[in-house]
Amino acid sequence: MRSKAMTLTGICTAAAGLAVMSACSAGNAQPAQPQQAAPSQQVIAGLFDDWNAALATGDADKVADLYAPDAVLLPTVSNKVRTDRAAIVDYFRHFLANKPVGKIEQEVVGVLDADTAVNTGVYRFDLTQNGSPQQVQARYTFVYELRGGKWLIVNHHSSTMPEKKQG
Hints:
Elements lengths: L1 H24 L15 H16 L3 H5 L2 E8 L10 H12 L4 E13 L2 E14 L2 E16 L2 E11 L7
Parallel strand pairs: 1-5
Antiparallel strand pairs: 2-3, 3-4, 4-5
């Protein structure tokens, strides 16, 4: 079995070499770049922790830094669709006044390819509104793209749960 694996490895290496030579001989001065490996589900799940930590700073600009310039935000506590940085910052200025702390209760992470992933599920926010602690449970979807070596949110949808939680 080892010799078959070695032979397949040799064939694959040779084929890759031919592809590079073919690309170069076709007038393309740059050899083909190796494809980047897809991120793990843990890496994508960890992006929520980064977002939650940005919320904890109370700085709307720090939160907005995690969104792509062309991101779309469908926020939990606003009817307005946010489609640019200024609108996203505006939303978080108001939302951060409630001192939100998010906790994921259920998540499903999907890695679509090396530069695209989705984290969707249910999260809960502990908030302080008018001096009183409150909890809001919501469904969420974060769509991420790797841009310039950094994972950015390109789409974020959050909506309160339609049914009251059974106790």
